[in-house]
Amino acid sequence: MTPAEHSPLIRKLSAFVALSEVELAVLARLHRRRRTFVAGRDIVHQGQSEQTAYILSTGWVCSYKIQADGTRQIVDFQVPGDFLGLRSVLLRTSDHSFEPVVDIEAAEVLTKDLLDAFAETPRLATAILWAASRDEAMVVEHLVGIGRRDADARMAHFLLELGSRLLLVGLGSKAGFECPLTQYHLADALGLSAVHVNRVLRQLRETGLVTFREGHVTFHDLDRLVDLAEFDPAYLDHSGPLLN
Amino acid sequence: MTPAEHSPLIRKLSAFVALSEVELAVLARLHRRRRTFVAGRDIVHQGQSEQTAYILSTGWVCSYKIQADGTRQIVDFQVPGDFLGLRSVLLRTSDHSFEPVVDIEAAEVLTKDLLDAFAETPRLATAILWAASRDEAMVVEHLVGIGRRDADARMAHFLLELGSRLLLVGLGSKAGFECPLTQYHLADALGLSAVHVNRVLRQLRETGLVTFREGHVTFHDLDRLVDLAEFDPAYLDHSGPLLN
DNA sequence: CGCCACTTTGAACCGGCTCAATTAAGGTGG
DNA sequence: CCACCTTAATTGAGCCGGTTCAAAGTGGCG
């Protein structure tokens, strides 16, 4: 079993940069403190400033903010290979909450271990920060979607983005992927009501573009879907981290 | 004239961390290459990957993405003291465009100079990265606003945030600030139509909360405005950069 | 003086919301 | 194995916030 199969993070980074033996070893070391969390119970609460980050290895998490009136906005989802709370470790700036969508497995990364790893292999630091900046680009794209795309395009774009991300870590294929999200998750992420999410999904299904049912997303017509969403994966690829 | 009056960036950072003489000198050095840009002509185009960042000293800029259908979403505004394209320098990830809202003055910062400065005074690196993470928190808050706040609250929140930011660099006061944005800018930033922006502004004015007229924002009733917007400045303050 | 960019207002429309009810799909205790 | 409960998905009906289209007003500037 190659390291890439061990850790989705290693797999993701490897897709963009060739990691040396040393770097792989350092990465593996970061995976030592394994933790599990149950679905629905927050890992970090808004405002609470944590000293630890996590590398998600299995399951999905969402990061969100709750408003005073109780409405919730999901800012991003984390899938295997993604960091949780990386920024809050590096800059003590945690200002949203993390909720596991399903039971998850994650590696706890202490600030010290991370900084040590960065000191030991600066290329790894660059690669990880690159991944973080990619996450940020997704947040920006998300903002654009909510601000300027109608519900259908928004949903299409969202599903395509998720598909791309999962493909990178070996979950799912061009034909589709397993997706544990409820329609409430989709609603809170896309700035829609759950009811309308349901109608949008129905329409996408009936027009033969994509089906989301029983935890599985199936792409029926990628071309038309990309077209509807005006999906341009440039913001996900952007040339990989430049090393040295 | 103190350095703080020279540069809004120095002023902003000084509000959160005491800068040493050396750090002030290094910062001053970063301000050497002065440039001007005229309103309306993009500084960096979407996709184009620039090697330089800028520190904005006077005027306003907006960063935005254009979609295929021509609609535009403004992701953020930069005001004096803010960096332009910091991320694209550090990580070669420019994926949006920058347009000066008015004629601006900015200092060009070459990648090399920035990295040298970071090497010379690591505390400065931390402080600047902290400012960058603050920008990011603003993008997240912006996302929440578009996704889950109605037009009135969205506008109120936006104006309050701008007020806070400007206060920090000595532009404007608790009573209001100069604002060169058109209602089209507001519309593209808030995900609304220009027509509706106009109506929202009228209502805020008529209910005695805030006036936006002839390039000037005047807060009439901060308490009620904060209340309407559910404005919690925590995401702007978050404890300052931790140094050493 | 006349143009141009921006603001303002009205009227009609519609995308997405709310409220409400029904169905489907697990789990759980008995 | 069934009765029950809970959570998620589904669908209908009516409403409303915000949009589009259209037109008029305002102010700065060459």
UniProtKB/TrEMBL annotation, chains A, B:
Record-linked InterPro entries: cNMP-bd_dom, cNMP-bd_dom_sf, Env_Response_Regulators, HTH_CRP, RmlC-like_jellyroll, WH-like_DNA-bd_sf, WH_DNA-bd_sf
Keywords: DNA-binding, Transcription, Transcription regulation
Annotated transmembrane regions: none
Source superkingdom: Bacteria
Pfam family, one: HTH_Crp_2
GO cellular component, one term: cytosol
Protein name: Crp/Fnr family transcriptional regulator
Lineage: Bacteria, Pseudomonadati, Pseudomonadota, Alphaproteobacteria, Rhodobacterales
Residues of the Cyclic nucleotide-binding domain: 15-90
Cross-referenced SMART domains: cNMP, HTH_CRP
One Gene Ontology MF term: DNA binding
Organism: Psychromarinibacter sediminicola
Residues covered by the HTH crp-type domain: 149-223
